[in-house]
Design a protein that fits this description.
The chain has 7 helices and 6 strands; from the N terminus they run E-E-H-H-H-E-H-E-H-E-H-E-H. The protein is α/β, with parallel strands linked by helices. The chain folds into 2 domains: 151 residues, Ribosomal Protein L4, Chain: A (3-Layer(aba) Sandwich); 51 residues, no CATH class. A 6-stranded mixed sheet has the order 2-1-3-6-4-5. Helix 5 links the parallel strand 4 and strand 5. Helix 2 packs across helix 3 and helix 4 crosses helix 5.
Length: 206
């Protein structure tokens, strides 16, 4: 399929042909959900922790004698049923990561890109670069393109001035092509690819 290339100022910069194998698939929600879940699980720190009865700093002596008090039989005050006692089956420090086949991850990225094309939320620009690295100038360009919530993907190296100018704009993310991922594509309204990013994607999935 052919898609128009635009400049940051809104001008026409020709056309680019997109591969149907990457941008023309019928998006599957189940694959996208699996990849997003895998990504978020990797980000999960897993540092939540509750102390068990063996970790509570309390005496382990029997609370009171076994018989003759008319009360229930108890041993240690560290038991979970007592205030200040250990937590039964509480959370422990662990990794939340799980495996996902490489083919599914690659397919997830293709389906995410195809979903943006299908919803007319993909824009291709000639390059992500500014003559002057000013947030105000970039904001004017984004407004002219109708962008208020977007992920912008550059080539192998993102122009340092452009990245600095975009840093203070809310809901605008800038990543090099190596950082493209399903979660960030789906969480932003519009995907903006530079011409170099399109070429890199075509090469990656060749």
């Amino acid at each position: 399929m052919d898609i128009k290339i635009t400049t940051l100022s809104g001008g026409d910069a020709g056309q680019v042909s997109l591969s149907d194998e990457i941008f023309g698939l019928d998006p599957r929600e189940d694959i996208l959900q699996r990849v997003v879940r895998w990504q978020l699980a990797k980000k999960h720190q897993g540092t939540h922790k509750a102390k068990g009865r063996s970790e509570i700093a309390r005496t382990g002596a029997k609370m009171y004698k076994q018989k003759g008090t008319g009360r229930a039989r108890h041993h240690s005050a560290r038991a979970p049923q007592f205030r200040g006692g250990g937590k039964a089956h509480g959370p422990v420090v662990r990794s939340h990561e799980h495996d996902l086949p490489k083919k599914v991850r690659a397919l997830g990225l293709k389906h995410a890109l195809s979903a943006k094309v299908k919803s007319s939320s993909l824009i291709v620009v000639d390059e992500l670069a500014l003559s002057e690295a000013k947030t105000k100038a970039l904001l004017q360009s984004l407004t002219s393109l109708g962008l208020s919530n977007a992920l912008m993907i550059g080539g192998a190296e993102v122009d340092a001035g452009f990245k600095r100018a975009a840093a203070n704009i809310p809901n605008i993310d800038v990543l090099p092509i190596q950082g493209i991922n399903v979660y960030d594509i789906l969480r932003r309204g519009t995907l903006v690819l530079s011409k170099a990013a399109v070429e890199a994607l075509e090469e990656r999935f060749k």
